[in-house]
Amino acid sequence: MIRNALRARAKLNLSLNVFPDRGEHGYYRVRFLNTQLTLADSVEVRKTHVPTLLINSKQVDGGENIALRAARLMFEAYGLPGGVSIRLRKRVPPRAGLGGGSADAAAVINGMDALFGLSLKPEEKIGLAKKLGMDVCYCITGGLAVVEGVGDIVRPLALPAPELDVLVATPAERKSSTAWAYSILDPATIGKAEGKFDLLMDGIARGNPREIARGIHNDFQEPIERHFPVTRAIRECLLEHGALNAMLAGSGLSVFGIFESAAGWKHARRDLEGRGVECHFTRTLGS
Hints:
alpha+beta; 8-stranded mixed sheet; 10 helices
């Protein structure tokens, strides 16, 4: 049986800026600085006669699962023969601002490209990704990259990706959707962190974790904390235990802290897990 196995790495927005002017289809214009984490799902794509989806070894009805949608899109776009079986081993918390589903979909596109010998160009994959969700566009490319437009323009950076120790904490609560998170943004307060973006870029260029930590920013943080105070409590806990800085991940509800001390993140993890918060120690994926 022919197969292709990939790592679907969680994404981390080190900077998440949303601008009040609207772009394509009325969507907010954005500028993110993204990197990837060692935290990842495992995605295996096999050629079969009957399409199936298994998550953590259990066969499920695919429904609107984004990985299966990606496979269907590939079959429709390129008239591929037969079917595929997709096996997902999930580790990235779902619907938590870490792009787990988007990374799975991107892995399916990249995996099927290799499996069927399509040799697709990056722009062709991005075109497919846009039909699934804007985070999929970044996950197709990965690495240290600036994401602009409405999330569909991905510019990989020549700078070495920083290597940071990160504790990701995810509460049991879940927001309704990313679209809902955008709906609660106040256009009068977003897109005002140009100085922090420059500080972040300087910190990455210098390889300085403290400067990087000072430069991280997320326009979703304040409105999400108003609706979900648990995210503020998690952020404050990470800071109390010595995080250089702590920030909402994506549109939440995960929160991440950047640590220099192993003792610090271990104490934070013990404290948060005692409150029922799921924690993952991980690292940013260096160049």
